[in-house]
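sorry for the late reply, my laptop died twice this morning and i had to redo everyting from scratch. anyway the thing you sent over, i finally got around to it. pasting the sequence first so we're on the same page, its 729 residues, then the predicted structure underneath. double check i copied it right bc i was rushing
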Amino acid sequence: MTQGDDCTAAAEDGSENDQQHLLILERSEKNTERNWKTVVSRRLRKHCSCTSNKAKSKLLAFVPILKWLPRYQLRDWLLGDVMSGLIVGILLVPQSIAYSLLASQDPIYGLYTSFFSSIIYALLGSSRHISVGIFGVLCLLVGQVVDRELALAGYLTESSVVSGNNSVAPLAGQGNDSYGVECDRSCYAITVGATLTFTAGVYQVLMGVFQIGFVSVYLSDSLLSGFATGASLTILTSQIKHLLGLKIPRPQGWFTLFKTWYSLLSNLGNTNICDLVTSLVCLLILIPTKELNDRFKSKLKAPIPFELFVVIIATVASHFGRFNVDYGSGVAGDIPTGFLPPQMPLWSLIPNVAVDAFSIAIVGFAITVSLSEMFAKKHGYKVDANQEMYAIGFCNILPSFFRCFTTSAALTKTLVKESTGCQTQVSGLVSALILLLVLLVIAPLFYSLQKCVLAVIIVVNLRGALRKFTDVPRMWRVNRGDASIWLITMATSALVNTELGLLVGVLVSAFCVLGRTQQARVLELGRAATREHYEDLSSYRGLQTHPGVAVFRYEAPIYYANQSLFKKSLYRCVGLDPVKEKTRRLKIKMKTSKPPEDVAGVTNMKPEEDEVAGKEDGRPAATVTLMLDQKPACRLHSLVIDCSAVLFLDTAGVNALKEVRKDYGELGLQVVLAQCNTSVLDALERGGYYPDQKGGDGGESRVIFFTIADAVRYVQNRSAPNGDLNSKC
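ok and here's the structure:
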């Protein structure tokens, strides 16, 4: 569309008048005078100075029990804490013995683990409700490492040990002078488990020292749920051999699920009938009774400890029925009373388990923090993620000297603890007293307890994780991305490798986030009829567009990974690719040897309606108005890009915007940005998006638009005196 001098003057007058009505905000000045020496010295004074108040505050923060115990409300809280502690302690006895089997340890070490972790977390933990102790997924990871190291050390398989050929090997020559005596298979197994636990605890404490508790936010609920469900399938498969009374070694490496099932089917003929019958009877008792507990938990003041009843009855039946002697049924064996003297980890073993310990540390911390934050939010208090890192780290480091294995928060016991009136971690101390009573007096009575009964307890407690499969259709309807993360993490953990499942889940989660920025597209916006509000034209009816001006929005940050997709989407939405347009014009110019203003029939333009105003090769240029194929009723002279959804720009993003403005500018289309946040404005400033003020535009290119309406009025008054609206449904 050609414009005369009068129109140009009117447009300039309108532009000057419109700038007086633009929303103008003044940026607050940043303190840029401080150099790095000032910043470093200030932080050193803040973190390295020591006063009595600061030392007291640090001590109370590191040992939270010193803060809340003096304020303990004896009358209101004691009864609930004692009741929940008693119930959880009773539940911990059979579960601690059972999960020792999963971790390839003797039963006494499971009781040690639950006892020490309950005390240490009560002292250092910031959550009032979670129960820290043995967790099935971590026991599985520990058991896999223990079996691997036993095989590498040359110890015989479990079947050989059970048959009586228990191997013995000296440890003095393996790099630890504290072991001067011979150590059998059981001794070396807990040595590996304790060393692994010590290393995982060191990782967790170091993460707390460096204040990186925020890593838990990268482990989404769908990732953790999928990982736990996949590990539950592996746990279920690993316990079937005990349900059937088979003596087969645990397979190592990848695809252990398939290897285990192959071994089970190959040895099915060796099933111990006594163990099979006992397993079926226990399953028929525990599954319905656990369901009754869940169904009537609102009416019951406390869950009925059916597991403990089953353990007692099964132990008595096995003892008087001589199941071990007459039928060859595997039993728990000798469980000593009291405590063994502390011992150091096997230092030479740390390089072998360092990688495994890191994955265990991440899983244990993530589960503990997620549970503590969930119950803190429910009951209206706050927890410190870094303090939780310290607490769970020392729950692993200190007990490792007393032959314990890895611990974390456990959902099932935490739910029981909360539902039975728990108010503080005094309940954890009460649970520790119950375990202490078992360790000092009752433990030897479990000698005849069958391993198949322990396996039944483990399997029954997997019901919650396995129920997640019924939620898959709902998850798919709610969010397909989260459902995909859950399915991939679960499948990898169960079918390939448990630790690999966690890594794959993290990578898939990251790629899903990146993929969402890759899928973002440019949307054309229209104005609401009654107010200056702009929304997507394809999503709402009755929106209006401005003649000659198109408004677009990109709903993602613009950075190196999606900057080319941003440009393609913008060109597609505008209906004109400036690069192809310039190439087309150049080819036609070379063929015809005519000036560009005489060339007709270029790409994305209708030849009979194309108007080119102005001249090139040194002559003054005017506005170029293009008729686009995709917009037959709209002559564009300006583009407004709404940057309200652009969170940040990197160098590639700034360059992409500069290229868009330059390429469209060469075709006569003005490009302006609106509603940029301060981060985007700073990135544009640093990236040289705004031209030098010494240029000939008088600083007009540096005008900042805080609303789309301001940007639209500005470009309308610069290009045309009218601002009528075209209706578009």
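Residues 199 and 351 are 10 Å apart (CA to CA).
thats about all i looked at so far, will dig more tmrw
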